Amino acid sequence: MEKNFAQAWQELESLAAALLSNIKQRLPELEALRDQAASHWHGEDGFYRFYHQSFKVYGLQGDTERIVTTLRSLLPDRDLNDWFLTIVKEGTGKKFTVEHNLNWLAETRPILEAFFHAKTMLDLVVKYGRELDAAPKMLPSGWAAVLYLYNLR
Question: Is the pLDDT of residue 1 over 90?
Fold first, then answer.
């Protein structure tokens, strides 16, 4: 039996409420991960290493992967957004070779892009985990972006 629109909407609202509940339960862990990703020796140094043309920019991939693993775990039975996953795939799993120096932007910008998308989603998860008491009907843009991450919009 196919779901009608009302049933499908109810399921999405239920999943959004479960997501928010899971976020709230894990806020200390999520905040610690956010703080680590934003810290000097992670996000800040990785950003600098891009401009310094240092192979150390490749270290951001580990942060990106940790963030994505954590985001997945908040609603583990739900696939993450395809665009988000494409960006992450294109910016992770890279190994530095000296030849990358010849095409630095093409080789390393995807690493930064993946990190920034993952970190921004984590920032939004933490922000709305703190601010929202329940999944709202009128969505703030940031919470709507989080719902898109979990294909709930």
Answer: no
Q: Does the residue 76 lie in any domain?
A: yes
Pairwise CA distance, residues 115 & 141, whole Å? 20
Phi, psi of 133 (to 5 degrees): -95, -25
62-90 pLDDT, tens digit each: 999 999 999 999 999 999 999 999 999 99
d(CA 7, CA 81): 22
Structure tokens at 55: 């192979």
> Contact, 128 vs 20, CB < 8 A?
yes
Q: Backbone dihedral region of 53: left (phi > 0), alpha (psi from -120 to 50 degrees) or beta?
A: left
Give the domain extent around 50.
15-149
> Residue 1 domain-assigned?
no
Please check whether residue 40 lies inside any domain of the structure: yes
- The count of domains in the chain is 1
Q: What is the pTM of this model?
A: 0.94
Q: Compute the half-sphere exposure of residue 96: CA atoms within 13 Å on the CB side of its CA.
A: 15
Integer CA distances (angstroms), 50 to 32, 33, 55, 73, in order: 24, 22, 8, 29
The CA-based angle 26-7-139, given to 5 degrees, is 50
**Phi and psi angles of residue 140, each rounded to the nearest 5 degrees, phi first:** -65, 145
